[in-house]
Amino acid sequence: MNSPDILTRNNVNIKGNGKQPIIFAAGFGCDQTVWNPILESFEKDYRIILFDYVGLGKSDISAFDSVKYGNLSGYVQDVLDVCSALDLKNAIFVGHSVSSMIGILASLQKPEYFSQLIMIGPSPCYLNDPPEYFGGFEEEDLKGLVNLMEKNYIGWANAFSATLLNNSERSDVANELEDRFCSTEPAVIRAFAQACFFGDNRNDLPHVTVPSLIMQCSEDVIAPRNVGEYLAKHLPSSTITFMNAIGHCPHMTDPVETALIIRDFLESNTESIMREDIGALHE
Amino acid sequence: MNEQLNYLPSGFITLSKNGIILSINETLLQILDYSSEALIGKHVHAILPNPARMFFQLYFIPLIMRKHLVEEMYLSIASKNGEEIPVLINASLHNEKEEAVIYCVIIPMRNRNEFEDQLLLAKELAENAFEEKNEALIELEDALKTLEDKQEELKKLNQQNLIFKTNTEKELQLAKKIQETALTKDISNEKVDILSFYRASNELSGDIYGFYQINPHQYGIILLDVMGHGISSALITMSLQSLFHRLISQGVRAEVVMQELDSHLHDLFQNNESAWHYCTAIYLFVDTKKQTMEFINAGHPPTIFQDPAGQQLELYATSPPLGTFEGIHFKSKTLDYKKGARILLYTDGVSEPLGQENLNLALQRHATLPLSVTRENMIVSLSNEAKDPYKNDDQCFILIELK
């Protein structure tokens, strides 16, 4: 698949006036517009890269393959494809929720693509594994979640009409109907849920070489505090920041705090690199 | 909260953008069995079971923050005693005094939920049935493919078989010709007439004969029948033929001829019992000067000797067949003959279809006609019997007239 095809397939959008690339990867089930509330903070200094995973948002739904995307590696490949298509080096990767783990796995395959990983509400494993690990959920809970998804029709009814009208003459109509901002389209969401919530990536953590920031929200039921602490302990060169924001989506509910923490981390990281350079000059 | 909202026939709740319960109406409190003090200021998670909490964070929050509207979201809420109540939620976001407030209308839907569960169950069953049907179909297609492959394989094998069969038949015909060239030609002179008939079954023959004029007044005549017929028997006849050809031509004594043939057979199979073949044989040594005939019959059907007066004598076996027991001592018998005596040697391929008595008669009936007439008549009789089951045996006979 060549680069223009990947940019279309993953609905890649580029914004901002800076040089340093920063990739924003949405969490479970949602498209790139979840980042809108914080983008303004980065537009001046960064080259912002937004994309949708295959099956979500305005991605090319015909590229969806339930086998490929029934596993996190399918989504990891989407990230790597986008990086490769844009020829990115040392990009900052900001991932929400499950995208944090996708970023980690992508960095394990191609560490040269990434300079920092910023993770909002990450979790390496959602299931409890007593006595060592408490992910927050029992298998029954996760099945209940899948059941809730099946009974909700958000997005997919529209996506269905879009498929019906999928001919070039009427593409304007299809686009109008299409709203997969936060979709529960059954085939896509079942595969994604399986890949996200039933996986266990704890063993991958010690191998990560890219420096990372863990953004731990207050009262996050999906990624509880102890999960964030577990990550901080097992991820080499990681920093954890405990947020005032409550819940699992601080970039939407508390965009100011979220953007501030990310910028702080990036600037302090850059400064430390600069200081090393200065130190070298003095010697 | 105003009275109308408080007693609205559905639940009503307001939340902060972070999900903190700001207010809750009486209807919902009754459904949940809580007092308002117990819930206000708490996070909405307090009334959500675990899966609903996840769903709330993954879908409700993004939708309400981005679209400011949630329509017909299905969730379940948990009452104080833990009962899960399926509900539909409509929500909208409003900014009040620079703070975002989420308004939610919550409608319990136990009956509709039951109906939807049934629909989902039916859908799942239908999908499973469809899947099973597809799997069965795939299995059937696989089986069909296997069958077709096997058929194709069989076809190829049949073709190979046919080629092999054709080649083998050609080879067999050639071998038959070669075998026939080893047979000696009829002898006819003023002292003796020796005529033969030889017809192999469809396969190669286990019969072999030879007659030789050793010197102007001595003749050696031999007839052998190797057990069975086909390639192995034919090869044995050929190896025996080369041996007796040499021995008889040199005028070696009858006992020695038989002794040598016997030990040759033992040598051939001494280390291989499964290839073991035996052979019946009769050897005649005729001296026209002395008018004597010496013979050894090794397990062969009796040779018929007929004196000029038509009197017949049968020369029965004088020893067991060749290649059976080791150390057989062959001893010849000698008889005198008068001019005009006739002799018939034959294999069981001739005596079985015609019958022993008919052979005797055949020799007697045409005693005054030339020997060739007798031969022709016997051939005709054999052809007439061709329909019977013996037709598959090798047929061979030798007629001798001593003049």
Q: Give the SSE order of chain A as H and E letters.
A: HEEHEHEHEHHHHEHEHH
Let me know the largest β-sheet of chain A: 7 strands, mixed
* Major sheet strand order of chain B: 6-7-16-15-12-13
- In terms of DSSP E residues, the strand content of chain A is 15-25%
- Average per-residue pLDDT of chain A, rounded, comes to 86
Radius of gyration of chain A, in Å, reads 19 Å
**Structural shape of chain A:** globular
Assembly type: heterodimer
Class from helix and strand fractions of chain B: alpha+beta
Structural class of chain A comes to alpha/beta
Determine the fraction of residues in helical runs of chain A and give it as a percent range.
40-55%
Sketch the topology of chain B as an H/E string, one letter per element.
HEEHHHEEEHEEEEHHEEEEEEHHHE
Give the strand tally of chain A: 7
- Count of discrete alpha- or pi-helical segments spanning 4 or more residues of chain A: 11
**Which chain pair has the greatest contact?**
A-B, 39 and 29 residues
Helix proportion of residues of chain B, in percent? Answer: 40-55%
Low-pLDDT stretches of chain B are none
